[in-house]
Give the backbone structure.
Amino acid sequence: MLWVWLVLLYGVIKGTREIIKKKSMEKNTVLEVLFVYTLLSFLMVVPGVTKAGGVDASTMVLIALKSFVIFVAWIFSFKAIKKMPISLYGLLDLSRVIFSTLMGVIFLREGMTFWQTIGLVLVCAGLLLYRYQTGEKRTKKKALAGGEVLTKEPAERVEFKIVCFALLSCLLNGVSGTMDKVLMLKISSTQLQFWYMLFLVLYYLLYIIVTKTKIRLVSALKNYWIWILSLIFVIGDKALFIANQSPDSKVTIMTLLKQAGCIVTILAGKFIFKEKNIGYKLFCAGVIIAGIVLSVAMK
């Protein structure tokens, strides 16, 4: 069951990565962080170039497509992380469980056991509970001369467009996760990591040239958060690709395990970014995590 621990490691790293993304964008723009982060990550896997050869043309096309999916997903996710509370993003990110599970069942013909179905229902319930809470209004007392009155204030509000960015990112990451499983049947983790990172760098470079976006390269290179982000990204992806090579691994279960990072982002929202409603978010996350544990333990 090594693949289970590798996917759990990826999940924790993923949660940590979201925190560092938000910190890195305090000094640099979304595109500056994206480009330099991708470039540094690619340079870290360049030593594996000697083992990256031998990929046929059809597989290379699939890798290029996977890279494009991630290219778009990261633009959406970085914009969402920059504009919304990190704890909220962590909860919304759990919706990728639904997307990836459905893709695993539909495209990879992975069966869903009774307990995995119950687990997925709990995941959906946790997300809906949080959505219900954010749609309500909290009341608080305000002291006024001659007494107290109850006033209403909106709960955590985020622009609808930004929420859509987060959900689109989850959908595209679900597509990428399904493609990983297919690709790992044909090539090694070293081959996939090298080529997909190379394509990502080229996509972002092309985007910068076409849109004529100004990049403060020196400023971004001085941002140590981006260096940390690149390092843990390479480690996390390596663990995930190795897990995908296991014949016992299933996209449906792996997707559930990856969501362990949700707790990391919610706690970071409380202790690092001083965000509100953490107790309720932890409750919703607890319902979701219960679904994840049930799906894996009873599989």
